[in-house]
Write a structure and sequence with these properties.
The structure holds two protein chains of two kinds. Helices cover about 35% and strands about 25% of the residues of chain A. Chain A has twelve helices and 20 strands. In chain A, helix 3 packs across helix 5. The longest helix of chain A has 21 residues. The radius of gyration of chain A is 28 Å and the shape is elongated. The N and C termini of chain A lie far apart (about 60 Å). The longest helix of chain B has about 50 residues. Classes of the chains: A alpha+beta, B mainly alpha. At the A-B interface, strand 11, helix 6, strand 20 and helix 12 of A face helix 2, helix 3, helix 4, helix 5 and helix 9 of B.
């Protein structure tokens, strides 16, 4: 069995025990081929009229602001060359490929080729797992994913959707992978994560009570103790953490941009960038220009701080206090006259008294712990009163808000809508005035149970 | 089969007639676990209490929030791990004492109080039980590693060269490892019972345990299997409860704790039942052995 980039146009028996296969494909910048007598050959067709419902066309059309007729997809022949040991995963592979063809096609533009070849590398060929070439890529699975409970781990699907994403960025847009790797791997990881969430839900792993979402997995490794080089540096700069910068941070940056611009605007940015630069080899500046143009905002500052410069993003609520406001104290000037006002010190019991009357003076301090500066919203939440919002440009290292209201402050939240996905620690983004012991009680009970179970298991 | 059922039934009657013993054996690890978990809970309370974003941890295992917590308080998460390791080590010692006490209570016929008999067994057999645990563990480790090794090699050859049947090797390795663990558990129980019965050494217990289990594997495994079915059923009930009653919010933490402890109590009762069954089986087998040798 032979698979290669493009369509087979000739298969000739040379008469000497050898065969000649000829494949052709226009508008590609690379090719690959494979041959093995062990492959199981699975042929399917992505029939656009069957795979994409009118509702899905309408949904994508609304998102992009285009009529459904303009984004119609075309049929694609899929050839899956599967290892016999992975036979139970056959339909999983096909479903992942079809769903990726659908959503990439709807979001970024129709797949322009007639064929797609997916190759499952032979045992021992682990080094070639998950590799992309035009119209051809290798998948990545092991037989352990054949059966329950490990069949709930979506690694085979993730690899297929990711590698098919490369068809759009590495293959068609074809940026310079050596000089600006983030434009390929970052865009592909961001796009494939969206397809995975759309098709399979947010959890990448769901096994025996443990859940790990796709974007959550990326955020988990985004930690302040890592090295934060600029995302846009050449791939040959070995002083950097390549995978973290190019895959993880680039994806989180694009997701942050999506949440700042809104899903619709971001979808139009990506569509315009892809269409305008398909087969045209753009650079980062070209993407920045498209993003600013389509969003109608000058995003150069955003890209400068997140892509071009080193550093991480971390906002934190440093402190929150709320105390009864007993009026002005000290020497007060009122025109030419100065008066002295003495007020008894605050009674701590007053603070704890649920019925104590206001007004209440509340102070919130927010800090920027990382080097990356992005504008952020701060929400002040009150007991019995409406929340108030403040916009902070983040330029200083900290900011303080002091308000006097008839109601107490309950909590303060920085970035309440979780837009800054790049933030390395979400836990410190909010702080409440009065602690809540529920989570600790829950974990106290669980840890006690675990410890008791360990004692019972290794003991009696 | 009839022997297995009769001994299982006999064993299942013991937890009820020895309710106080079961309650005590359930309470000892609970008290130790609670004592170890208390400072941890206090530390968690002071860290998580003021952080609303940590509230998601009140509904289960959220890796994102846990990773953020590990970053904010590096010592806290590693502290949980270290505590579990320390408790496991302590558990080996506590387990040796508790099983000595349980077997003494189950086997003794004198009129002394339960506490007296339990303490007597715990102290008298402690050293020998620790010794026989180490011996059986060591032996099991060596034999298990030797038995699993060919399967590991086969798995490697499958991944390297794609040798067909090799794909079943990981299942074989898991099966052999499980059987080794089961053999260790059965030999350890038989050895402990022999030590209590004959007041012999750890070595003698090990030899007797090996002889009994490997000469009569079916009846030992049968009894263990019957007990295992009941343990699995109680695990199933517990998981069903967890599925039906969400444990994440306020007052629902209490039912979760009660369900956890009800499950722990049931498991303790079943463990006492298994020890009672095994104890009766060892008596029967040794009696039959003595009869046959006197006839010879």
């Amino acid at each position: 069995m032979v698979g290669a980039t493009g369509r087979r146009v000739e298969r000739r028996d040379n008469g000497d025990g050898t065969l000649k296969h000829v494949f052709e494909q226009a508008e590609v910048h690379d090719f690959a081929w494979t041959a093995s007598p062990k492959f199981l050959q699975v042929r399917r067709t992505f029939v656009a009229d069957e795979e994409v419902t009118p509702e899905e066309y309408a949904e994508a059309g609304r998102l992009l602001g285009r009529p459904p007729e303009e984004i119609r997809l075309r049929d694609v022949e899929i050839l899956l060359l599967l290892q016999p040991a992975h036979l139970p995963q056959q339909e999983r592979h096909i479903k992942a490929a079809k769903t990726a063809l659908k959503w990439y096609g709807l979001w970024y533009g129709r797949y322009p080729y007639d064929t797609l070849t997916i190759v499952d590398p032979a045992p021992g060929g682990g080094g070639s797992l998950g590799m992309e070439y035009p119209t051809f890529f290798t998948s990545g699975t092991v037989f352990l994913f054949n059966h329950w409970p490990l069949d709930r781990i979506l690694v085979p699907e993730d690899v297929i959707v990711h590698e098919l994403g490369h068809q759009y960025w590495q293959g068609m847009v074809a940026t310079n992978e050596a000089e600006e790797a983030w434009l390929d791997e970052g865009f592909t990881t961001y796009s494939s994560a969206k397809v995975m969430v759309k098709t399979y839900g947010s959890a990448r792993i769901r096994v025996l009570g443990l859940e790990l979402g796709l974007f959550e997995g990326l955020r988990v490794v985004n930690r302040a103790d890592r090295v934060f080089a600029p995302i846009r540096v050449p791939a040959w700069d070995v002083s950097r953490d390549y995978r973290f910068d190019i895959y993880t941070r680039a994806t989180l940056t694009l997701q942050t941009l999506e949440r700042l611009l809104g899903e619709e605007t971001m979808a139009r940015v990506m569509r315009t960038y892809h269409e305008r630069w398909r087969f045209a080899h753009p650079t980062s500046e070209d993407f920045y220009a498209v993003a600013s143009e389509v969003s109608g905002q000058d995003l150069s500052g955003f890209f400068q701080r997140t892509i071009e410069q080193p550093g991480y993003l971390d906002y934190a609520v440093a402190s929150v206090t709320t105390t009864r406001d007993l009026g002005p104290r000290g020497i007060l000037e009122d025109g030419a006259e100065a008066t002295r006002s003495f007020v008894a010190s605050q009674d701590p019991e007053d603070e704890a008294d649920e019925d104590a009357e206001g007004p209440w003076r509340s102070i919130v301090r927010v800090r920027r712990l990382g080097e990356v500066v992005l504008p952020v919203e701060v929400e002040l939440q009150f007991e019995g009163g409406p929340p108030e919002h403040r916009d902070w440009d983040g330029r200083d290292r900290w900011v303080s808000y002091e308000v006097t209201r008839p109601y107490r402050l309950v909590a303060a939240v920085v970035d309440p809508e979780d837009r800054l996905v790049l933030d390395v620690n979400r836990l410190n983004n909010a702080r409440r005035v009065r602690p809540d012991g529920q989570a600790a009680a829950y974990w106290g009970a669980r840890v006690t149970f675990w410890l008791k179970s360990v004692l019972a298991l290794v003991g009696l | 089969m009839r022997v297995v059922l009769a001994l299982t039934r006999l064993g299942l009657g013991r937890p009820w007639s020895a309710r106080t013993l079961v309650a005590g054996v359930w309470f000892i690890p609970l008290a130790l676990a609670a004592a170890a978990a208390f400072p941890l809970w206090r530390a968690l309370d002071s860290v998580l209490g003021p952080l609303p974003e940590a509230d998601v941890l009140g509904t289960g295992l959220r890796l994102g929030a846990l990773a953020d917590l590990a970053e904010l308080r590096p010592g806290l998460v590693s502290g949980v791990g270290l505590t579990i390791v320390a408790i496991a080590a302590l558990g080996l010692l506590v387990g040796a004492a508790v099983s000595g006490g349980v077997l003494e209570v189950l086997r003794s016929t004198d009129d002394r109080s339960l506490g007296h008999r339990f303490g007597r067994g715990a102290g008298r057999f402690f050293g020998r039980f620790v010794g026989v645990s180490l011996l059986v563990g060591l032996l099991g480790g060596v034999v298990g590693a030797a038995a699993v090794y060919p399967f590991v090699t086969l798995t490697g050859s499958y991944f390297r060269a794609g040798w067909g049947p090799g794909r079943f090797a990981p299942y074989g390795a898991a099966l052999v490892a499980s059987l080794t663990v089961l053999a260790v558990l059965l030999v350890l129980d038989a050895a402990r019972i022999h030590i209590v019965r004959s007041d012999g050494s750890a070595w003698a217990g090990l030899r007797a345990g090996l002889g009994l289990v490997f000469r009569h594997p079916l009846v030992f495994i049968g009894m263990w299997f019957a007990n295992g079915v009941l343990v699995t059923a109680s695990v199933g009930l517990f998981l069903l409860f967890r599925e039906v009653v969400p444990s994440g919010s306020g007052p629902l933490i209490l039912p979760m704790v009660l369900a956890q402890q009800a499950f722990a109590l049931a498991r303790t009762g079943l463990r006492v039942a298994l020890l009672a069954s095994e104890s009766a089986l060892v008596d029967d087998l040794l009696l039959a052995q003595a009869d046959s040798s006197s006839l010879a």
